[in-house]
């Protein structure tokens, strides 16, 4: 299998070295940039399999790099993992809303880094096409017939609950903000700031029985489906 390219955009040189060492040990090929502008340029020219993106960067901050990568059709499909610092939930939320795939809080262990990188790469490969049929353990979502089965038993969901479940379950492990779920599932203006989605999640969980724990609350951010 050809080696996958990972681009690190991070201005802490020691950290870049550490990440590079660990990724190369795992068989990845690594490129790096010490500021946002150079990072943006390298992402465009190298089209890496994944970008590790620090948020506090010289010349162009991480969120702006992210915004530009997602706006450009040539780079929009490159998965991004944000490297964030503690207590920066607002930035992480902003990043998730721009379409980043995951975030890692500094300081992190190499083991965590590698497992997140692999998970995001796996997910982005799986997401190549829309899924009609999702089966996780004894939970089956049949999108073509709008039916859900729990251990072989049909369960009746509202349209919103069904769409919410399908939305989350088709991207296990990925955190979605409430705004993203509102617009993705309810088709409502994402400027509406309320907790409508929490009500739908609560009623969905009730109907999912032992599978309720698959829908995980991510504090300060939103929800995800267990990976
Ligand atoms: Ca930094």
Structure commentary:
The chain has 227 residues and is an alpha/beta fold. The protein folds into two domains: 5-126, 3-Layer(aba) Sandwich (Rossmann fold); 133-225, Arc Repressor Mutant, subunit A. Helices cover 41% and strands 22% of the residues. The protein has helices at residues 13-25, 36-46, 62-71, 89-98, 110-126, 159-169, 178-186, 196-208, and strands spanning 5-9, 29-33, 50-54, 80-84, 102-105, 133-136, 139-142, 147-150, 153-155, 176-177, 215-218, 222-225. The strands form three sheets. The chain has a five-stranded parallel β-sheet with strand order 2-1-3-4-5, with helices on both faces. Strands 6-7-8-9 form a four-stranded antiparallel β-sheet, with helices on one face. The protein is elongated. Bound molecules: calcium ion.
List the ions, cofactors and other small molecules found in this model: calcium ion
Number of helices: 8
Provide the CATH top-level class of the largest domain. Alpha Beta
Named CATH architecture of the largest domain? 3-Layer(aba) Sandwich
Mean of residue pLDDT?
A: 89
Oligomer: single chain
Query: Spans of 5+ residues with little confidence (pLDDT < 50)?
Result: none
Number of domains: 2
Give, in spatial order, the strands making up the sheet with the most strands.
Answer: 2-1-3-4-5
Q: β content, as a range?
A: 15-25%
Instruction: Please name the CATH topology of the largest domain.
Output: Rossmann fold
What share of residues is helical?
40-55%
* Helix/strand order, N-terminal first: EHEHEHEHEHEEEEHEHHEE
> Which word captures the global form?
elongated
Intertermini distance: 25 Å
């Amino acid at each position: 299998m050809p080696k996958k390219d990972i681009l690190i955009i991070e201005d802490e040189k020691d950290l870049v070295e550490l990440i590079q060492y660990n990724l190369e040990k795992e068989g990845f090929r690594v490129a790096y940039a010490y500021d946002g502008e150079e990072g943006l340029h390298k992402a465009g020219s190298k089209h890496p399999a994944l970008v590790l993106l620090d948020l506090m960067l010289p010349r162009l901050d991480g969120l702006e790099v992210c915004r530009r990568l997602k706006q450009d059709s040539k780079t929009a499909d490159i998965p991004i993992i944000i490297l964030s610092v503690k207590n920066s939930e607002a930035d992480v939320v902003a990043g998730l809303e721009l379409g980043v795939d995951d975030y890692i809080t500094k300081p992190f262990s190499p083991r965590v880094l590698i497992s997140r990188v692999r998970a995001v790469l796996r997910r982005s490969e799986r997401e190549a096409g829309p899924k009609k049929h999702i089966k996780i353990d004894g939970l089956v979502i049949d999108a073509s017939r709008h039916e859900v089965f729990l251990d072989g038993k049909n369960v009746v969901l509202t349209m919103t609950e069904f769409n919410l479940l399908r939305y989350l379950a088709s991207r296990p492990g990925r955190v979605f903000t409430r705004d993203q779920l509102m617009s993705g599932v309810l088709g409502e203006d994402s400027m509406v700031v309320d907790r409508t989605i929490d009500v739908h999640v609560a009623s969905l969980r009730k109907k999912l029985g032992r599978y309720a724990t698959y829908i995980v609350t991510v504090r300060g951010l939103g929800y995800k489906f267990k990976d």
